[in-house]
Amino acid sequence: MREEFRADLHIVAQLLVDMAESVRAAMGQATRALLTADRTAAEEVISADAEIDATYRQVEERVCDVLARQAPVASDLRAMITALHVAADLERMGDLADHVAKTALRRHPSPAVPAELRAVFTDMSGVADRMAGKIGSVLAKPDAEVAAELDRDDDAMDDLHRSLFAVLLRDDWPYGVETAIDATLLGRFYERFADHAVNAGEHVIYLITGQPTDQ
Amino acid sequence: MREEFRADLHIVAQLLVDMAESVRAAMGQATRALLTADRTAAEEVISADAEIDATYRQVEERVCDVLARQAPVASDLRAMITALHVAADLERMGDLADHVAKTALRRHPSPAVPAELRAVFTDMSGVADRMAGKIGSVLAKPDAEVAAELDRDDDAMDDLHRSLFAVLLRDDWPYGVETAIDATLLGRFYERFADHAVNAGEHVIYLITGQPTDQ
């Protein structure tokens, strides 16, 4: 029974690692689509989101199957419930990459992001990439230190988010309300991506240490 | 065992009904705070969100306890996993009411919403209220018809969301970029509140019918 549980847990963890890699790749490609007005790249992100959703359902099915077959208790039960939480966060991160790609498509062939904002979105994408990478790495090899770094990455994302608004609110902002609306929503998508990465990290910490972090 | 499970399920369902009522009240009060620049109302919404989060944790603990004690299978297991999903959606709806309240506070004592947008936010709040009410009612008395109505409510919310952007994008929009940014984010909060209500409804339909709806 114990062996069987470990094998199941390994399969679930591998599905989560795959999801983390997929959402990381999706946000990177969505950012490229956004900054280079690349229609094909945007469409690929949207297709890939269906695969992420399918993997999410696989995690759910596998967890329900384990609960039904093995009726785990204590830390084994906690691991299964945590897997559901992490999968839900990763699924949502995939949705947010999809939203960035759709914003790029909606303005295509014009770029959705004016020159003044390319740097901040490039940096937000860089932080997002680092955070998704850390989720993948702590899932593959649990490490509470790495998971805790996600909080600091999230602070960096928040700083970038504030600097985005500072550009939008300059008196000489020349691009009008429509571009400001797009930039506001895009900023929110990257910020939420980071929030979900932090949540996922907290669940992994809980799994490793048994201690919940403050919500 | 069967009796015990039914009693546990009843407790979990009651916690979810309480959450649905709380998030409904929270979004209503957050909207009042927004439209009347009412600081006290906004602060109450923010305090109440901590209680919603606490109820969410109670649902999780109760579900884990049931899984550990009773090892339910088949439809009983599905009911417990569904409860976790519905609780997560409701918890997020509470966060979104909290975000609306915080937007009201950030601009206080000025109103965050100019006169031209009061009607659309009043209507969005009306749809949000109806949707949260339906979640509460289908949880208390499962009814796939009522749950399905949530899709139509969500269409109404999307129409309102589009009409919000139409106002923001008028050539004679007189309030500048900052107010447009606030309105964009507020619109997103109401729209996401509706999305989570739809998700919660889909989970309840799944519980009633055993058939997943299309994602």
Short note summarizing the structure:
Two copies of one chain form a homodimer. Chain A has 215 residues and is mainly α.
Main sheet attributes: strand count, strand direction, barrel closure of chain A: none
> How many beta-strand runs of chain A?
0
What's the overall geometry of chain A? elongated
CATH fold-level name of chain A: Methane Monooxygenase Hydroxylase, Chain G, domain 1
Radius of gyration of chain A, in angstroms, nearest whole number: 19 Å
Please give the share of residues in helix of chain A.
over 70%
Could you tell me the strand content of chain A as a percent range? under 5%
Secondary structure category of chain A: mainly alpha
Q: What is this structure's SSE topology?
A:
The structure is a homodimer of 215-residue chains.
Chain A: H1 2-36, H2 39-70, H3 74-107, H4 115-140, H5 144-168, H6 176-209
Key terms for this structure?
homodimer, 215 residues, mainly alpha, Methane Monooxygenase Hydroxylase, Chain G, domain 1, elongated, PhoU (chains A, B), cytoplasm (chains A, B), transport (chains A, B)
Description:
- The structure is a homodimer of 215-residue chains.
- Chain A is mostly helical and 215 residues long.
- Chain A has a single domain (2-209), classed as Phosphate transport system protein phou homolog 2, domain 2 (Methane Monooxygenase Hydroxylase, Chain G, domain 1), CATH 1.20.58.220.
- Chain A has six helices and no strands.
- Chain A starts with a helix and ends in a 6-residue tail after the last helix.
- At the A-B interface, helix 2, helix 3 and helix 6 of A face helix 2, helix 3 and helix 6 of B.
